[in-house]
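Sample 1 of the test manifest.
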Amino acid sequence: MKNDLQRSYDLKRKELETVCRSNGLALTIQRRAIFDALASRTDHPTVDQVYEDISEKLKGVSRTTVYRVLETFVSIGVATKISNPESKARFDADTKRHHHLTCIACGKVLDLHDPTLDNLVPREGKIPDFDILDYSITFTGICSGCRKKPLNKH
Amino acid sequence: MKNDLQRSYDLKRKELETVCRSNGLALTIQRRAIFDALASRTDHPTVDQVYEDISEKLKGVSRTTVYRVLETFVSIGVATKISNPESKARFDADTKRHHHLTCIACGKVLDLHDPTLDNLVPREGKIPDFDILDYSITFTGICSGCRKKPLNKH
DNA sequence: GTTAATGCAAAGCATTTGCACACGT
DNA sequence: ACGTGTGCAAATGCTTTGCATTAAC
């Protein structure tokens, strides 16, 4: 009998097929393998970790393909990318607790000081074994400058 | 008469001096200039933006110095760095709303599903002109694996 | 005068791109 | 068969490092 994890895993595989079809994307072995690798772990692997996972089974896959397929997954909504938008470090002279507003259009990061957000505590029992030291909330959206502008592609 | 911004700015300059002294760090013109540039803006500049700002005044500064000084500032606590810890993108097949636990020791990212954190709304009037579309909380701390290990320098 | 900080150029990584070949439909 | 997807290798962009020179204390 299949357990819950296995069942949800099958669901996700099915979902991949559906989403690929509806976006006119080919269901290549690489995409399947990369999806399986990603869906079977919950620790947010890097491109290289996914590459390692699949290259055991798929001889001769390219790291480039992993990069491309993962970005494809993000664009069709079956995966999420966690990183700073432009892979550039940003610095801040304000060391007090505060949160961030990131504009998805221009990449600008604004501060949000709001004491009502400064004492969040995850519910007991929800936390995997982990000692929390600090936290920060990143709100994503559109800044006033970008809202006014007509969308320019690229 | 000095306004509030100017006053807090002077305070911060003084603070830089104090912190540098107490850490045995020299108060170079580069460090002063980089600190001033950083403290005078609230939009989280990139290294290059800081570099542009200071190179107007300081002829012949090196980008390398900006990199090094900003990291120094982070290590003595006068600045904060905003970016993914290892400058590697991470991916996730879980597209439902959830939050993250990032281990500062090993860089691993774990999921935190907790409905009590899923309906945060910044207090009215606190938000700069900005349309919020989504948000995510990143908790930083030590994962169970790293807690057990003795700290190994590297 | 010492020691730490800077500037330069070269090296390191993660990621992207151009193009020919291979595969899915 | 057609067009998209992949693999390879080279290019790009951000960041770091080694080493000689310069400046702070």
